[in-house]
Amino acid sequence: xxxxxEFEKPVADLEGQIQSLRRLAEGGEGVGVEDEIAALEAKxxxxxxxxxxxxxxxxxxQVARHPDRPHASAYISGLITEFTELAxxxxxxxxxxxxxxxxRFRGRPVAVLAQEKGSDTQSRLHRNFxxxxxxxxxxxVRIMELADKFGLPVISLVDTAGAYPGIGAEERGQAEAIxxxxxxxxxxxxxxxxVIIGEGGSGGAIAxxxxxxxxxxxxxxxxxxxxxxxxxxxxxxxxxxxxAATAMKITAADLQELAVIDGIIREPVGGAHRVPDDVIARxxxxxxxxxxxxxxxxxxxxxxxxxxxxxxxxxxxx
Length: 318
Hints:
CATH superfamily of the largest domain: 2-enoyl-CoA Hydratase, Chain A, domain 1
Shape: globular
CATH class of the largest domain: Alpha Beta
Number of domains: 2
CATH architecture of the largest domain: Alpha-Beta Complex
Radius of gyration: 21 Å
Distance between the termini: 49 Å
């Protein structure tokens, strides 16, 4: 069964009618319902196009968090061959919220860093809902240093509400680990490409997304804090998350206009979860084109261009 968001109710009603008619037809009770099904399918398609043509920032936030949205594991399965996961930070423990390893991307050896939220209750608990602890970021640093040593481009898939804010994480140096991961991204002498595939939350996201090229899926979000968190701070009312989402400029279109990201990867009407294979393939094309930009560039040129990219953010707005 497909999950529908609250604002998708007109589409849900139509698709429910279609399913009921199909069950009647399969049971032999619905005679000559094919035309009615076709008409309803056309109406459902038009309704979906209409709804997604005018999404608000808050509605995009809901799409970015959709339970059926493809997560990092799906992208790795679809884009990376011969993937070998590398575990542990060599300091404290393994962090299952961050998937890290080596593999081949369209025949090219690469290092992969990905935040994984999980797709059901058990896997979400196992992955800590994609919220990494310090050991996750220290594992990322270890993989980036390995990639730098062997000249492997780094691909980062970002999808997190933010770094884990628990007491244990803070005791083990969460802020320091995030800062060192961000610094490791900036110091890389190999190209790195980051894609925000769902949520890009605060320092927990930028610790992996400080890349030569940063892209977002059309309905992904990227912000310094969640809309709920911002509403709690600004108005002491989490119910005003919708107002916060609008004010914070968290959508892909907003962030491209502000030159925070380098491009937007289009999603099918209805979101990435409706045709995940197409979105994954499209993402692969964008990553491949981004990596091709750095063929023939020296390690110092690659590092300098990345640093200049981030130093330039906001200058045109002053």
